[in-house]
Design a protein that fits this description.
Elements lengths: L2 H34 L11 E10 L6 E2 L6 E2 L1 E12 L2 E11 L4 E4 L4 E4 L5 E3 L2 E7 L11 H5 L6 E8 L4 E11 L8 H13 L2 H8 L9 H23 L4 E5 L8 E3 L3 H34 L1
Parallel strand pairs: 7-12, 8-13
Antiparallel strand pairs: 1-6, 1-11, 2-3, 4-5, 4-10, 6-7, 9-10, 11-12, 11-13
Helix pairs in contact: 1-6, 3-5
């Protein structure tokens, strides 16, 4: 093997080892997060990182339509691929892909929670894959004899969906508003009110510039701060009387955000198998690297 070939092989073996180590670390860490996070009920859940089991319900925003099948659903993800061949090289090339961002409503025996699916690893129960001759399919997937004897294989379509009534395991960052659950940070709330008032500085002067000189002196500014404090307390009081609203979204830290129709046990089992695969890749890459370095030392 020439020098260039050896360098290329060494780079590939190092990359395989590093990639396997990263995949092992990622999947093993995700499995531990799932096992270490206790299951909570929506009504009594603490603020922060939580996991829920529940059932998907129709939300106030109404049902969506799958972009490829026009099937009614609550969430969708699709992909359109084209079959390409060049010499002995054949592969499927992705032409289009996307997923919906509408809020999901998860209900358990104690309440409901809205879920923002953006940034989540979604593992739906419904998945359809079929092929056709047009870039965009005309309706639902072919089934039965039509699919068996179809030779139109230039394009491959994949659509995944979540539907009302399906079970859902969700783990992510939980936040509640209303219902008297939020404490009042008076300094922060007062500052937010003052910033809002400064957006209409003319109106602010009209209310608090008693001398009419177009400026706020120290005494007038104290009145602004007092009024802003009272306004912040009043807003908090009004918000606390509203029914509690619960939201689940992507955590700010590097914690798993997963929405899955499969339960925790099945997910953990899959993650451990994938972590084992990553460890084997890392070991294979390390052995190949050691072997290549051993060749170069002689």
């Amino acid at each position: 093997m020439d020098i260039q070939g050896q360098v290329f092989a060494l780079a590939c073996s190092v990359a395989v080892s590093a990639g396997g180590a990263w995949w092992f670390s990622r999947r093993f860490s995700q499995a531990r997060h799932l096992l270490d996070t206790p299951t909570s009920k929506i009504r009594s859940a603490a603020q922060g990182y939580v996991e829920f089991y529940g059932v998907l319900h129709d939300s106030a925003e109404g049902a969506l339509l799958g972009p490829l099948t026009n099937a009614s659903c609550l969430w969708w993800r699709y992909k359109i691929e084209e079959y390409t061949s060049s010499g002995n090289k054949r592969s499927w090339r992705t032409l289009e892909s996307g997923s919906s961002e509408a809020l999901l409503q998860l209900n358990d025996s104690t309440g409901s929670c809205l879920i923002d699916p953006r940034g989540a690893e979604v593992r739906p129960l419904t998945r359809e894959v079929w092929k056709g001759s047009l870039r965009h399919p005309l309706g639902a997937a072919k089934t039965g004899w039509r699919a068996l004897f179809s030779n139109d294989e230039r394009y491959r379509y994949t659509e995944e969906r979540l539907h009302a009534g399906q079970p859902l395991y969700a783990i992510g960052d939980f936040r509640s508003s209303g219902g008297g659950r939020q404490g009042l940070d008076i300094a922060s709330a007062q500052g937010a009110v003052i910033r809002e008032w400064k957006g209409d500085f003319g109106g602010l002067l009209q209310r608090f510039d008693s001398e009419g000189n177009g400026q706020l002196d120290e005494r007038e500014w104290q009145r602004v701060q007092l009024a802003a404090s009272l306004e912040a307390e009043d807003r908090h009081r009004r918000q606390s009387t509203q029914p509690a609203q619960h939201h689940l979204g992507k955590p700010r830290e590097a914690q798993p955000f997963i929405l899955s129709c499969a339960g925790e046990d099945e997910l953990v089992r899959q993650f451990y198998w994938q972590a084992a695969g990553g460890a084997l890749l890392c070991l294979a890459g390390a052995l190949a690297t050691a072997w290549l370095l051993g060749i170069n030392s002689f």
